[in-house]
Amino acid sequence: MNNRAQDLVEMFNLLPESEQDLAYEMVKRLVLAWDSDYTKLTPVERARLEESTQDLKRGEVTNYADIDWN
User: Fold this and answer.
1) Angle subtended at Cα 57 by Cα 56 and Cα 61, rounded to the nearest 5 degrees
2) Structure confidence at residue 24 (pLDDT)
3) Which carries the bigger pLDDT value, residue 17 or residue 64?
4) Taken in order 18, 20, 26, 32, is the CA torsion positive or negative?
5) In Å, what is the CA distance from 27 to each residue of 30, 45, 65?
6) pLDDT at 63
7) pLDDT digit string (tens) for 2-60?
8) CA dist 28 to 20, 32, 47, 61, Å?
9) What is d(CA 18, CA 2) in angstroms, rounded to the nearest whole number?
10) CA 56, CA 48: separation in Å to the nearest integer?
């Protein structure tokens, strides 16, 4: 979690519970307006995807047996 997200959580927790519901709904509406079907990548997700794509291009793959599926 980056510093801005931590600051938001701290501010959110300062609010009384009755106001937290309102703040939650406002943030939820902002996110849905930005990405209504949750398909956009965040900058961190995009970087991870690009890194894994580069790994594949170099022939680097993970062995199925090495994955902890639990």
Assistant:
1) 25
2) 92
3) 17
4) negative
5) 5, 20, 41
6) 77
7) 899 999 999 999 999 989 999 999 999 998 898 888 788 888 888 988 888 887 788 77
8) 12, 6, 24, 37
9) 26
10) 12
Q: What are 21's two structure tokens?
A: 């519901």
Of the chain, the end-to-end C-alpha distance in Å amounts to 24
pTM: 0.50
Contact at 8 Å (CB) between 15 and 23? Answer: yes
Tokens linked to 24: 């939650």
**3-state secondary structure at position 33:** helix
Tokens representing residue 53 in the block:
């794509």
Task: Measure the CA–CA gap between 45 and 2, rounded to whole angstroms.
Answer: 14
